[in-house]
Predict the structure.
Amino acid sequence: MKCSSISVAQSSAFLTAFELPPTGSGMLDGLCFAVKDVIDVAGWKTGCGNPTWRDSHPPAIANAVCVEQLLRAGARCVGKTISDELAFSLLGQNHFYGTPLNPQAADRVPGGSSSGSASAVACGLVDFALGTDTGGSTRVPASNCGIWGFRPSHGFISLAGVNPLAPSFDTVGILAQSADVLARVGLVLLTCAPVPASKPCKVHLIHEGFALADADVQHAMLEPVRRLRDFFGERVQELSLRDLAADKSARSFASWSDTFCVIQWAEIKSCLGAWIADAKPELGPDVAASFELANQLDRRCVAEALERREQYFRSLHDFLGLHDLLCIPTTPALSPRKGDAPARSSSGSGYYPRTSAMTSVGGIGRLPQVSLPVAHAGGVPVGLSLLARHGQDTLLLEVMKSLDQQQLCH
Amino acid sequence: MKCSSISVAQSSAFLTAFELPPTGSGMLDGLCFAVKDVIDVAGWKTGCGNPTWRDSHPPAIANAVCVEQLLRAGARCVGKTISDELAFSLLGQNHFYGTPLNPQAADRVPGGSSSGSASAVACGLVDFALGTDTGGSTRVPASNCGIWGFRPSHGFISLAGVNPLAPSFDTVGILAQSADVLARVGLVLLTCAPVPASKPCKVHLIHEGFALADADVQHAMLEPVRRLRDFFGERVQELSLRDLAADKSARSFASWSDTFCVIQWAEIKSCLGAWIADAKPELGPDVAASFELANQLDRRCVAEALERREQYFRSLHDFLGLHDLLCIPTTPALSPRKGDAPARSSSGSGYYPRTSAMTSVGGIGRLPQVSLPVAHAGGVPVGLSLLARHGQDTLLLEVMKSLDQQQLCH
């Protein structure tokens, strides 16, 4: 573990602490990390945040491929962190294992489902941590906890040894204390060489993304967006969803959220439904309600949602140049207060549909996204997100680093 | 079922026959299909070709997303087909469920692991069938059985409800009796509109791919390649691996095969290793030997293999224009005779390393690939493959259709 003023016990972030030494030497020498408990570490059970899951599955016999890559590059692994139950939540409150500490806003949830990983990083207990991100599970807790978070382009970091949730959207995410560490870990997992620092051609602020945010989040974004304009000048431009969507339905964020949720819920049922029906696990009430929603979905809708998804994906892909970025707030609202958990719903103006709308751009677009710990509102952290074209992860990581050096984030 | 001169029983292709009616109407009206037994059909166990797996897992409670798409587009599902054990073989001989018939070469194996799906199509029992393709499991049986086979770009057809084998390479594959049906099914699953027929800019014949093939396969390829030149003229060009590889190691096909196998084996151990260690299933001798190889892999090699994989991927991606194709034989050898099963090995000049070398181009490149039933050698079918850039699946399907209309394949 690292030296931190917050203890492991105080953080409530860890399920298990151990010491797994590096198997090689390289870009991550000297760094330590923790692993979300949906990712295999050899010899340990992968519990996926639910005791019945843990008890009905054998221990992992091999490290997940992504864990193997990090050890090989010189990092050491110090433990496994709490996941929201079956990774199906954005809050970070686990009915069985508790709520990891959000050290910058202790009365608020850390966000999930990579809650323990975000907390361990934010509490200064590790240099970085592995999470997963299907519908925001790395980006949202990064924003809530005031740390750096990265969701890679879909399909470019190995998912072997990571429990599937919704394969069309599943990714391995990274949470880190600094932009430099995040970039190094990203390059190791993507197996990319760093690219020369370069400015993006354009940075498109998505108007509807900022408009969807609460007033306090909008206000908190003013200064970092002003600095972004200082730094990139006229490359920063406003854009409306209608500019990037050939399809009329794509002009409304609600349609992005709905498209995403239908596919995600259908896939979650495929991945976990038979086990739940068979093992009849005890589930926390919020997660049980979420699975009920996924269960009730009329699967005949999925084909239409997949068609919309590919239309939106292609629109985005055609619109975005190789060196262009998109910019939105990471979340539309501050982290909810503990005990004040918003209900999951598929539509309306609640926390879940608005947050899903914001995170669905990355999911539907298969885009890489970083959340920068850029601002606070009333002392509560909130992140600003940059997204790049599918496959342009290294450009995104380089731009992130240069923004950090220009002190966009302090 | 369709009307065929070969009965379901004679084909030995099916595990279960049933009738699942369409849930909508569209491009696949009137067509019937079968589903490889690693893909979920609601109410049925997904047995993955192994009785212990079947008995230790609950029935599927939902159709896989890809099955749902096909039913919605008007097709009806008529049964589940035999998979090679745990989908980890290219042969098509299942120790427990037998060897589906290769109707064009009854003394030879159908190829696997989508053996039952290929056989059901080749026997004329269905219009098309779903398979999976991680390391050739759709392309190889398509070539062996003299039918059309398609592996999509990685990441563009939903894998929800499909048992994971090696997530970095797993895809849903399609086997079909005709180019027209294959293209229609492909467009439904990819949720793409047809593109206007267009000729590719260039068709690169990979010299080493043809050189790797046995003399009888090389000879069988002469006439179809001549017709390809007739049809596309000077767009058809020879290319050497060294032309498309920045990295020196990529100039040898052995390195492609090795890179692919290391990652595939590491991921297979992550996906299936804990279950095998815990459930101690009875395995057929060939598959047991294959898992032993996967088990013995030093996982510290994986990081280097992933680096090579991304180098090769990027070389290919940079080399291939949007409208360019690659061309290689689908397999370097004719389908092995029954009872003459080649051993799995990681190197040398045997069936597995040579076949893996040929199929690894698509896997490492994340490329879409079609195998065209283009020729016979001594009465035994053998396929020619075309590959397009990652994401250019619709172009590939259109070119395939136009080649069919020009009678390249008859």
